[in-house]
Amino acid sequence: MSDPALGLTMLMLIVVVIMMGFPTAFTLMGLGMFFGFIAFYDPTQHFTENRVFDLMVQRTYGAMTNDVLISIPLFVLMGYVMERGALVDKMFYSIQLAFRRVPASLAVATLIVCTFWGIASGLVGAVVVLMGVIAFNPMLRAGYDVKLASGVITAGGTLGILIPPSVMIIVYAAVAGQSVVKLYAAAMFPGFFLSLLYLIYIVGWAMINPKIAPPLSEELTRVPVPAWMRKFQSAYSGNMLVGLTSALFSPSRAVAIEAEKERVTYWMLLKDFCVALVPFALVAGTLWLAWWYVVIHQQAAAEAAVSGVQQLGSPGLSGPAAAPAEQGPPEGFYLWFGLCAVAGALMIVRYYWRMDADRFVVLTSSVMPLGILTVVVLGVILFGITTATESAGVGAAGAFLLAVQARTLDWKRTKEAVFLTAKTTAMVCWLFVGSALFSGVFAILGGQALVEQWVLSLNMTPVQFMILSQAIIFVLGWPLEWTEIIVIFVPIFLPLLKHFNIDPVLWGVLVFVNLQAAFLSPPVAMSAFYLKGVSPPHVTLNQIFNGMMPYMVVIIVCMVIMYLWPGMTLWLPNYLYGG
User: Fold this and answer.
1) 64, 96, 529, 576: least surrounded by Cβ within 10 Å?
2) Helix or strand or coil: residue 215?
3) Sign of the CA dihedral running 490, 495, 501, 504
């Protein structure tokens, strides 16, 4: 058998052996060592001198010294701390109350929690299992259709590997040699856009067929307002912001309020006043950060660069081309910034105008803390304030602070989070070692060159190659998980992107969206099995599969829109970092 044929045999065997249930990382290493031994075999040498052992050491050292992988344990720790801190149930309940007037409000709340919890966790299994425990039974008790309830949990739970910060994006960056922060910026809009398409589908289906999501009872839509807050409104004002402001200057009536379990103090009033200002701070802070980055920061950087060139006295020398963000505010920035500022001001005025006790309680019920953590983690990455690894440290520290503030994290749960983080990180690292060895042997045997020759012989256009590559990855998602696809099959396509003049960032984000289907496509639809493990006995696996199918169509629609409108993916990374 020729060497290229051995390479293709490797490729077929890896799929078969993984489907048989063998661990992926050690299967990759085992096949790599076996076929590598054959590739390097020299009958004149002792078997211990076979060069495959040197290749194993080199590939292991290369994987372990990859700086990109350092951020994985910190992001994973952030997710597990948030999970073990039991903050999701409070967030789900408060968001469900906030959207109680929207059709299919429980399903909408589930999708929103999955989206933002996926940002904090980045782990599909943890999100699906947790939301299955928290949201599945309430939806079934409320009379929701099983397919709607199971579909929104399984599809929403997969968003964690798409919306940054994501472990899958870090793994792809290491495999493809791309910038993690650039991939984060590229995946930002498509991730939230896919979540928006899910939301449109859920609400549209509920409006067309209200029977699948009956309106909730009055008991489930009633906000549990503390007794002291009702008395506080009677003493000051129905508007909580006005009342808290008045109470800070005239606290005597507030301090005199006595409820069943708590007594109002001045410190409590001051703390609630600061909490009430958080929405304003988030909107104003986001606008200020955008103005600072586009107008102030870049102008200062440009002036410093010009000054440095003048001091060097070498006008003929020039560095790399500046990113659009470094060339000053783009055309139309001031107009759009003004419109956004006006829209934000109107939204804030409307919000505070209607801030009664119900809305104030919903605000403080863990929506705000997780929202702040999300904005901070994503903001420090995108605006270049920290590296991806440093932002992971910020996120992990923020997760610990939130869990401690909620008083839900004890020593036992902290130890569980650390052990689970070590287990997941070890899995990813061994996977990289096995993948590096496997891909090295595959290339040495000529399998990579054979695949490239076959693809080039088809004389495809870039569009045809894009469709073919994504279709192959879509089909591979049926029997394999995203980890196997990223580390085994994506490297086969990467060398061909340059020939077809396809941006590896755009292609990579399309792969990320495509791999959402890997968790939703039978027979190895891991999201379905995660949910089945925590669902009531009467819910069958076929019902869960049927509930997931429409979301696969939504994923394909999202991919088509992304390809037809590449600016949705490439504008932000090209603006921030050039390209």
Assistant:
1) 64
2) coil
3) positive
